[in-house]
């Protein structure tokens, strides 16, 4: 039975599940597969150019999808937003930067505006800017984020943003997480790491294997990869990744890493090219304890919906159960 929420109504979905625009991982095939399964897919160009954007929209074909940008980086390359809008996406998501210069342009192109925030003040500002959907991202999320945990942040953001629908992001990897988000007032969930380990994702096979084998205790929020790659990420954003030899060597020694950045960048880039994730980073959220297979996106969506229905049914049972006296 489909869930009917403000999100499903706004985007015409069967299920309140949105693929996070993971950079270089959420491509057209994955976005289309999530969309065909009843959710909504966002491709994630991250630092990639217009050619990548065009190719992934082509791969998605006729399935309605959207796109997500790192706002501060896209602001330096506004032609990438133009390339995306020319493909008439159903929605554009902006994260990590000042969205104000772009909201009107996106709306004028006929796309819904999704703004991801990490603070209550950010949720209030996103509503003021006219966001159609707001994503409340907790620190549990894989990849870049800030400092607030989702459990306390989400209901506060829902209240502050009303009536704008809010999605939960951060360690939502199964139907129990989706049910919890809905119970706290969210209109759905933005799901990343679970879909990284999807058959259709562009993630390297070795990275997917590390996610399946990993656990949430073995993740860390760090700046070391951004430093090594010379990416000028603004404060307060750090990235949650699986702990490996590179993070162990440099996390907490960022000043020393700056001094040898060029040599470490060469070493890091070579490792990434050959799929050596003892050095290259796998961005992943704390919920990876619950990921134990690599599965087609459709199966992941179906499983999450069934688990969410079962979880909510258990709550109803608890409400109506007569306890022994």
Q: What does this entry look like structurally?
A:
Helix 3 packs parallel to helix 5. Helix 7 links the parallel strand 5 and strand 6. It contains 16 helices and 11 strands. With 325 residues, the protein is of the alpha/beta class. The strands form 2 sheets. An 8-stranded parallel β-barrel has the order 1-2-3-4-5-6-8-9, surrounded by 7 helices. The protein is 45% helix and 15% strand. It folds into 2 domains: 224 residues, TIM Barrel, CATH 3.20.20; 69 residues, no CATH class.
CATH C-level class of the largest domain? Alpha Beta
Widest sheet: strand order? 1-2-3-4-5-6-8-9
Helix and strand sequence: HEHEHEHHEHEHEEHEHEHHEHEHHHH
Given the C-alpha coordinates, what overall shape results?
Answer: globular
Count the E strands. 11
Low-confidence stretches: none
Structural class call reads alpha/beta
Number of helices: 16
List the defining traits of the structure above.
325 residues; alpha/beta; eight-stranded parallel β-barrel; three-stranded antiparallel beta sheet; 16 helices; 45% helix; globular
Q: How would you summarize the topology of this molecule?
A:
Blueprint: H1 6-11, E1 17-19, H2 28-36, E2 40-43, H3 50-60, E3 66-70, H4 71-74, H5 78-85, E4 91-95, H6 100-108, E5 112-117, H7 120-129, E6 133-137, E7 143-145, H8 150-161, E8 166-169, H9 175-183, E9 188-191, H10 193-196, H11 205-213, E10 219-222, H12 224-228, E11 238-242, H13 245-250, H14 254-259, H15 261-273, H16 297-320
Parallel strand pairs: 1-2, 1-9, 2-3, 3-4, 4-5, 5-6, 6-8, 8-9
Antiparallel strand pairs: 7-11, 10-11
Helix pairs in contact: 2-3, 3-5, 7-8, 9-16
